[in-house]
């Protein structure tokens, strides 16, 4: 099974190499392509850095996986998934593994995640897809992350429906502290929430709006992905790509000429 490893933290993120090791150990035929810089919050944007519409990429190597084909690409993670589906990195992947992200991707805020966006883009082209995130911006317990990721990747390679995304969040705790892996609904919010201040005038033609991000207080009355993650569980949630909504009466909107 052909697998593409991608992320939104960039080619030098430790989570990328960690996920590549997991995929190789699972017996997958692995290629790696990741943004040359961090693209957190890129969602499923298809953006590149070249004004003339061309993409720049360069070959890289992982010291402990020298046999892998690794590309550093100057574009968003979702565009990398799109390119992979078109055969830019060889045979289109059967499964796309996105991560392991530094920081959780929980709740409805996954809409903005470049990690999840890359996986959803792959799913929209008919591939299996897994998005994996670790609950910490400076995580240290990679054994736990790789153990849970291995279980998720091996399950997804056999059981995940093509065209859908398995979203996995992993607590940054030791394996002995890990309570297990549970399915979970999305929390109402994500791990952080934006606070927008008053618009300020910086001059005759310029305005500025202060934007800050703070951690969300977790609603522990509901067993959401965020709440379970907070209490030492790894979580798994199946996602689907955007689709039309049926059952809405649009007759007052439509017309013909």
TrEMBL record:
Catalytic activity, EC: 3.1.3.5
Enzyme class: hydrolase
Protein name: 5'-nucleotidase
SUPFAM superfamilies hit by this protein: SurE-like
Catalytic activity: a ribonucleoside 5'-phosphate + H2O = a ribonucleoside + phosphate
Residue ranges annotated for the Survival protein SurE-like phosphatase/nucleotidase domain, each copy included: 4-186
Pfam families assigned: SurE (PF01975)
Entry's family note: Belongs to the SurE nucleotidase family.
Keywords for this protein: Cytoplasm, Hydrolase, Metal-binding, Nucleotide-binding
Listed GO MF terms: 5'-nucleotidase activity
């Amino acid at each position: 099974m052909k697998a593409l490893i991608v992320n939104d933290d960039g080619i030098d993120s430790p989570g990328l190499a960690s996920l590549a090791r997991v995929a190789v150990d699972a017996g997958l035929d692995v290629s790696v392509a990741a943004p040359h810089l961090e693209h957190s919050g890129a969602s499923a944007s298809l953006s590149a850095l070249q004004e003339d519409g061309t993409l720049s990429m360069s070959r890289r190597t992982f010291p402990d996986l020298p046999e892998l084909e690794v590309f550093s690409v100057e574009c968003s993670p979702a565009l990398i998934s799109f390119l992979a589906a078109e055969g830019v990195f060889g045979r289109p992947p059967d499964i796309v593994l996105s991560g392991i992200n530094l920081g959780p991707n929980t709740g409805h805020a996954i809409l903005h995640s470049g990690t999840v966006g890359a996986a959803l883009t792959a799913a929209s082209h008919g591939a299996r897809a897994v998005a994996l995130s670790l609950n910490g911006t400076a995580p240290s317990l990679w054994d736990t992350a790789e153990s849970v990721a291995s279980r998720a990747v091996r399950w997804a390679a056999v059981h995940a429906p093509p065209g859908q995304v398995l979203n996995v969040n992993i607590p940054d705790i030791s394996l002995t502290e890990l309570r297990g892996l549970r399915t979970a609904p999305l929390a109402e919010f994500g791990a952080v929430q934006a606070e927008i201040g008053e618009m300020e005038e910086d001059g005759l033609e310029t305005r500025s709006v202060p934007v800050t991000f703070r951690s969300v207080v977790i609603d522990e009355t509901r067993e959401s992905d965020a709440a379970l993650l907070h209490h030492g569980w790894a979580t798994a949630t199946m996602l689907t790509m955007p689709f039309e909504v049926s059952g809405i009466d649009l007759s007052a909107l439509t017309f013909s000429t």
